Hints:
Elements: H1 13-23, H2 32-43, H3 59-67, H4 70-117, H5 126-143, H6 160-177
Helix pairs in contact: 1-2, 4-5
Amino acid sequence: MKKAWDRIDGEPQMWFSRFEKFYLVLGTERSLHAAYQNWRVKKSTVELNGNGKIDGISGSWQKASKNWKWKDRAEVWDAEQREQRLKEEEELRLEMRKRRRTLLGGFIAKYANLLQQFELRDNPSLSEMTKGLDTAIEQMRKEYDDLPMQRVNVSGNITFADFAKIAKDRLEEIKQDE
């Protein structure tokens, strides 16, 4: 299937070549003036003004650009390139996510195995090992968008009965707010 930026029926090869080599490649910030300037510099038949640039654009370039719809074709090209880039980035993101999940799964399995074999005389401490496992599990939950909706930090001297009462009272408050 022919793409919008392909050569149009009847378009002279010379103008298509200039479209492709000097206009299309300039990217989303392209201009006919920049394409014309690059073509002239490449041909080495140019006299630059004091700024190192070419003044004006040839009438034949302006006419060809309009007749062969360079601007419209280039915009379709840009959109296609953008879609392709986004697709490639999404594929890379998914591949990296898969790798992270595999790595985290292995890490969790190693920690679980170490915890089963743990003896108090060993280093690291049980506290350090469980913190490592907690970190790995938290990262895995992030990978699967499975984070807890809310965390409750409890500190100080509190009994389970106290905690249960606080949780029950808070639940009642939430029900009343509905």
